[in-house]
């Protein structure tokens, strides 16, 4: 079963930095798009940043110039570097992947499934 596990959240002062990581495990054939979402208390979940298979990033306006999404050298990893953090960045951050999962049928045959997978979330708190 494919899983995403985030790490790197925590408490940081305004102006500080954090780096979130997300690692995918399981029978993964391809990861098409990675994304980071966040959800603050009482608010809807919103996309923060995304990156395609060929490395094209996209950011929501509120984080442009401060956050950077990148894919790791290992195809199953994505990062979110967050600089100049503000109290309004406080939220639970979720990793998301659009991917193709495979099932090995033997005799060199695979069955593939397109999946949208979420991580469990990691808390980021920006406060003095």
Commentary on this structure:
The strands form two sheets. Strands 2, 4, 5, 6, 9, 10 and 11 form a seven-stranded mixed β-sheet that branches. A four-stranded antiparallel β-sheet has the order 1-3-8-7, with no helix packed on it. A hairpin with a 5-residue loop joins strand 7 and strand 8 (77-82). It starts with a strand and ends with a strand. The protein has no helices and eleven strands. The protein has strands spanning 3-7, 10-12, 18-25, 28-39, 46-52, 57-59, 67-71, 77-82, 91-106, 109-118, 122-126. With 128 residues, the chain is mainly beta. The relative contact order is 0.31. Helices cover 0% and strands 62% of the residues.
Number of strands: 11
List the secondary-structure elements in sequence, H or E: EEEEEEEEEEE
Mean pLDDT: 95
Largest sheet: 7 strands, mixed
Distance between the termini: 40 Å
- Unreliable residue runs: none
Rg calc: 16 Å
């Amino acid at each position: 079963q494919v899983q995403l596990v985030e790490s790197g959240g925590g408490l940081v002062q305004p102006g500080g930095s954090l780096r979130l990581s997300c690692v995918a495990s399981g029978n993964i054939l391809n990861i098409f798009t990675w994304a980071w979402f966040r959800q603050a208390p009482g608010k809807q979940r919103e996309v923060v940043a995304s990156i395609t298979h060929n490395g094209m990033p996209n950011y929501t306006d509120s984080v442009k110039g401060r956050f950077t999404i990148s894919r790791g050298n290992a195809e199953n990893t994505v990062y979110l570097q967050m600089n100049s953090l503000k109290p309004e960045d406080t939220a639970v951050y979720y990793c998301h992947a659009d991917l193709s999962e495979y099932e090995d049928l033997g005799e060199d045959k695979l069955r593939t499934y397109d999946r949208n997978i979420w991580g469990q979330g990691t808390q980021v708190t920006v406060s003095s």
